[in-house]
Amino acid sequence: MMKRYSLILLFLLVGLPDLLATHFYKSNVPFFHGRLQVDESQRYLEYEDRTPFLYLGDTAWELLARLTKEDVSLYLKNRKAKGFTVIQTVILPELDSLTIPTAMGASPLLPNKSITLNPLYLEHIDWVLREAQHYGLFVGLLPAWGDKIDKQWGNGPELFDEFSARVYGRMLGKRYADYPNIIWIMGGDRGGDGKNRKIWNAMAEGIKELDRNHLMTYHPQGEHSSSFWFHQEGWLDFNMFQSGHCQTSYAIYRRLLEADRNLHPVKPVLDGEPRYEDITINFRKKDGRFIAYDVRKTLYQSMLGGACGYTYGCNNIWQMYAPGRSSKCDARFWWYDSLDMKGCCQLKHFYLLWNNFDFSKGIPLKGILRPIDGYDMDDAVAFGNDSYIICYFPGGTGWNVSLLDSWDDGYFLQWMNPRNGSLSVAVRQTDMNLHVSLPEKGSEKDWILILKK
To answer: What is the pLDDT of residues 338-377, one digit of tens each?
Structure first.
């Protein structure tokens, strides 16, 4: 007999802050676990001692150029408290001239010497890396934004050819090989085709010649993946794609995430630039702005779709928008007033799943979820194995969950609210064809269903 279950249950809030804090405090010194590496499943990242690593990134492209030391410390402390593990930033940034002083008073490049980094700027990068280490954070470090190789819509200038890119890469590899908290990210919103391919390969190989200690990936332009050009390259440890700022449904993950997971050799993959919170949709004010609901959808749809991590972004923070600076992409709040936006503050609730289930033993479960009410606004996704299933419902009123025979001995059903992290009382069930009603219905009312034996 099929039954319909709704949440007429008490949500348990007791102990939740302690559960989350335990993970954050424990990861203040993650570098004792050894280097990062790809795990045995080839789908996820881990430390050398086999401790799982969740790549939960924040986008701070202009941090090195636009923030003072006091600003950096404020920002990193805030991000650590929210559960981030990686900060993505750029040595040669996009927005400002490379020969005018940064917030710390030193230009990135020496005047009249095309690709010679200013020693004072390098010292500031060193300090930022140490400060991030103090907070237990990795830095996803881009050697140069993509316009320094392929100008297109950027400021440029185009600095590198194949030879100079390799020399530059060797310099960075030598200087930073022994820092414990770096993840190298090639690219920067550009493709790897044409002349770009040889230049990016040369820079990546230059780093790897002198630095075998750190993982490396590539950040492409919107709605593209590193796999389009570099999947077979030995330096690419995991794929990164950019779902971008125009798509609003799981369809973009079907095109990029699922495609990358089907490649050989198998490599981990993550969304390195999804919809920024508070950016205009399609870069047009008339289309509205992405909100916390969009952040939650990209987080849970990608992670339950099999990604090894996720990068958050806020339109006001990536550019470090502040008084005296021009607004890019219709930024409207100062960066320091945007640190606690709703979507950002809700990311930490994902740890309730990550800390309690072994994602490396799970897979995306296709075809087990079907809307009862004809809901077709977006896809629900499911992930798990024979001992647990996690379902994310972006909306609707009710869903059918079809279970395999291995669940016929019964299981526990529990709801999680991704907006506040609250959990319902777990209820024992035996139905193999389960009909569930969402605990709360309406616009932006997404829910997570947990089934476990």
So the answer is: 999 999 999 999 999 999 999 999 999 999 999 998 899 9
What pTM does this model have?
0.94
Domain harbouring 90, CATH code: 3.20.20.80
My answer on whether 226 and 306 are in the same domain is yes
In terms of domains, do 349 and 433 share one? no
In the chain, the largest separation of any two C-alpha atoms, in whole Å, equals 78
| Cα–Cα dist 415/309, whole Å | 23
Phi, psi of 363 (to 5 degrees): -140, 155
Within this chain, do residues 201 and 324 fall inside the same structural domain, yes or no? yes
At residue 18's C-alpha, the angle toward residues 12 and 21, to 5°, is 130
Question: For residue 369, what are the domain limits?
Answer: 4-12+362-452
- Rg of the chain over all Cα atoms, to the nearest angstrom: 22
By CB neighbour count within 10 A (0-12 exposed, 13-18 middle, 19+ buried), where does 236 fall? buried
pLDDT bucket at 108, cuts 50 / 70 / 90: very high
Closest CA to 256 of 293, 197, 315, 298: 298
